[in-house]
Amino acid sequence: MNKKLTLLLVALIAALTFTSCSTDDDADTADYFVGYWEGKMGTYFYDELGYGTDYYYSQLDIQRTSKYGGWGRERDYNGYHSFVTIDFQWTVQDGYIYFHYSNGAEVALDFEMDGSYDGTTRMRAIVYDTHTGNAVGNAELYRINSWYDDWYDNSFWAKPDALPQKEEE
Length: 169
Fold this sequence. Notes:
There is one protein chain. The protein is of the alpha+beta class. It is extended. An eight-stranded antiparallel β-barrel has the order 1-2-3-4-5-6-7-8. The relative contact order is 0.15. It has a single domain, classed as Calycin beta-barrel core domain (Lipocalin, Beta Barrel). The protein is built from two helices and eight strands, in the order H-H-E-E-E-E-E-E-E-E. Keywords: Signal. Residues 1-22 form the signal peptide.
């Protein structure tokens, strides 16, 4: 009896250990997504010649209000100095970022993010219509700042060779 109880306790401890060590990837993604992003967004469409894509310069302001989401504002510029601004709610679920726009449109971003040596974060995404499941666009955005930026670094200091040098007499 004692041996069975010991074996049961070991199995229970192992099960609890593995379940309590799980990571919350969606919350981590939501953390990483907050900030100001800008870059190129494209929309797919069918015209009289077949398949085409329109690209816009876009700016996104992403704010977080919960563990998995928040609100945002998207501004899309066309080549003629006009722009459209639209608000949205966003959530992260099962590895996708969902946008629920104020005009009723809903899209899901299947994305990948990567960083570079200078701290720039790039996000590339395929945009899907959540109602039809069809790909309706793509995006390549760069985070220009976030809550986690230090707002300063050593690049703001004068470089030693930029300072006037005393002439030796």
